[in-house]
Structure to design on (592 residues):
């Protein structure tokens, strides 16, 4: 749920007084009586954050250069050996490729579907409120449960193949989750179904924030529907696009639940993701050094993508 | 902009309704199959007639879903209450104090948004094991609270920065100390953002699978998703029975969703405007 772009606007970093033109006293300063917000209010939040997030994350990064196995208190430095193992391991490499592919495809498709749904329900259609409730409903469903339902629909004799046969496309019917060529995309389909409604509500909020006068002005100037969308609406949705892309990417890169429900990582390693390999290598195989090095790789991937995205949006807005 | 209902609007409406029906197929299939006799091999949407509730009785008993739902409920409520208390308090000095330590602490906390939980996973697991919290609901609660701090603190701080100081000043002039003024004056004014924090965190924590699987898996204290996971691997492809278990596990969240849909959708959209 990272929104770093919203937190670093330069205006917020400055003192409020610095923003008022010189000579005019800031309005609030007139009667400011020294409201005090004590620093110790931070103690519970920062304490639990340090204990659960910061300290173990730092330890995780450090232990990735050691042979720490989680049980013995003694360990020794092994340099980059664990990373060497990760990059030469087939399951780990497949998992990296699968995860990037899954995150990328899901992000593109989910955003297109979400935006189209938002444009649809933002119109005069009479059922718009009911439609929003229906399209959003899968978002609150437990991902694991949604994964099981989809694995039933995608089974060789499941509803999706039956529907294909019923409309004469029986040739397309297949064991979607059992075929290494389609399994990953079948999982993407489930993710898009489940979370398109989330993208929709964020785009909807963006659309509703566009002043009606702007669109009227474009219409008066003779702009067609497509031109209006491309040149007026889309640039004003920039913020919603950034948030949606970020949420989808990070969610996709951490993908675990639906894979565990639908394929368990198979067939072979066709749908292993970074998260499933981290889980299995640590808790089924007991290989902590490998698992922890892979977690470091994952962190770096997420940080790099976030930085790239931040850079791109900075340039577009300036 | 679309002032009138034209034939084009009608086409749009029909397309959207068909799409919505397609969206509902997995949910309808889930409910339908759960009402079929156990050895039924008919398709997902072939009507279950006569419907039977036998699967529900058996799933409830076999998967000990009662205890699992109770655990999910306790974990969700306790985690969310602690998240609200800690995050709202922390946001107060972060929003009101403009000194350097306050700004640096803010960036330090929201920096956590970029760290995937997987990095902390194994050291945290070892710590929880060493202090004897494996299998205890407290391990999951503590982890939820810690992991949700960055986003919740971020939401509260952004909201508080927009809130005028007038009420706090009035409270101060009336002789309120900082703690009392925070609890009685500031916190009630944070209600809109508290709503968003409650909604986002409750849905996320109720549905969470990975953390409880790791910390509660194999113990008697499972949550609904973990119980379902064990149940499904035990009754492979006995779909009517499995689906009855799935329905039971998601009924609470779906009931809350359809009862409060307007607020929930607004909470999800509002949490992201920053």
């Amino acid at each position: 749920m990272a929104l770093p772009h919203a937190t670093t606007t330069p205006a917020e970093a400055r003192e409020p007084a610095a923003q008022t033109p010189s000579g005019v006293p800031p309005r609030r300063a007139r009667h400011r009586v020294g409201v005090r917000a004590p620093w110790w209010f931070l103690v519970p939040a920062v304490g639990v954050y340090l204990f659960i997030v910061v300290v173990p994350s730092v330890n995780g990064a450090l232990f990735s250069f050691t042979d720490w196995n989680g049980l013995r208190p003694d360990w020794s430095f092994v340099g980059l050996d664990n990373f060497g193992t990760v990059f030469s391991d087939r399951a780990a490499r497949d998992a990296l490729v699968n995860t990037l592919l899954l995150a990328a495809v899901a992000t593109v498709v989910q955003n297109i579907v979400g935006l189209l749904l938002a444009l649809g329900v933002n119109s005069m259609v009479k059922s718009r409120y009911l439609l929003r409730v229906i399209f959003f409903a899968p978002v609150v469903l437990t991902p694991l449960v949604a994964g099981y339902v989809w694995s039933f629909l995608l089974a060789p004799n499941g509803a999706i193949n039956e529907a294909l046969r019923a409309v004469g496309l029986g040739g397309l019917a297949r064991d979607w989750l059992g075929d290494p060529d389609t399994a990953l995309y079948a999982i993407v389909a489930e993710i898009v179904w489940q979370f398109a409604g989330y993208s929709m509500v964020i785009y909807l909020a963006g659309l509703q924030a566009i002043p009606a006068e702007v669109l009227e002005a474009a219409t008066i100037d003779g702009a067609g529907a497509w031109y209006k969308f491309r040149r007026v609406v889309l640039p004003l949705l920039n913020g919603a696009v950034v948030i949606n892309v970020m949420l989808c990417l990070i969610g996709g890169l951490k993908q675990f639940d639906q894979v565990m429900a639908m394929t368990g990582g198979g067939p072979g390693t066709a749908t292993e993701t970074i998260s499933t390999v981290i889980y299995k290598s640590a808790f089924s195989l007991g290989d902590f050094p490998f698992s922890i090095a892979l977690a470091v790789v994952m962190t770096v991937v997420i940080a790099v993508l976030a930085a790239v995205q931040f850079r791109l949006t900075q340039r577009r807005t300036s | 902009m679309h002032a009138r209902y034209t034939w084009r609007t009608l086409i749009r409406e029909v397309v959207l309704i068909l799409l919505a029906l397609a969206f509902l197929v997995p949910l309808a299939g889930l409910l339908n199959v759960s009402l079929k006799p156990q050895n039924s091999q008919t398709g997902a949407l072939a009507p279950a007639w006569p419907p039977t509730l036998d699967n529900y009785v058996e799933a409830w008993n076999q998967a000990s879903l009662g205890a699992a739902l109770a655990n999910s409920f306790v974990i969700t409520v306790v985690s969310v209450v602690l998240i609200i208390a800690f995050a709202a308090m922390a946001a107060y000095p972060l929003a009101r104090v403009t000194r350097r330590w306050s700004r640096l602490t803010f960036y330090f906390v929201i920096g956590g948004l970029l760290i995937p939980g997987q990095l902390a996973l194994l050291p945290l697991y070892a710590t929880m094991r060493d202090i004897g919290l494996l299998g205890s609901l407290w391990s999951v609660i503590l982890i939820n609270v810690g992991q949700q701090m960055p986003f919740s603190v971020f939401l509260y701080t952004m909201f508080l920065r927009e809130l005028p100081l007038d009420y706090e000043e009035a409270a101060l002039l009336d002789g309120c100390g900082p703690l009392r003024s925070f609890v009685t004056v500031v916190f009630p004014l944070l209600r809109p953002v508290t709503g968003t924090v409650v909604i986002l965190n409750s849905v996320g924590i109720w549905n969470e699978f990975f953390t409880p699987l790791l910390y509660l898996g194999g113990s008697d204290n499972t949550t609904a998703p973990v119980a379902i996971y064990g149940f499904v691997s035990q009754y492979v492809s006995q779909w009517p029975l499995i689906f009855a278990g799935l329905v039971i596990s998601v009924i609470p969240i779906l009931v809350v969703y359809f009862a409060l849909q307007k607020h929930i959708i607004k909470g999800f959209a509002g949490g992201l405007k920053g």
Observations:
- Chain B touches chain A through 112 residues (CB under 8 Å).
- Chain B has two domains: 7-52, 58-270.
- The two ends of chain B are 27 Å apart (CA to CA).
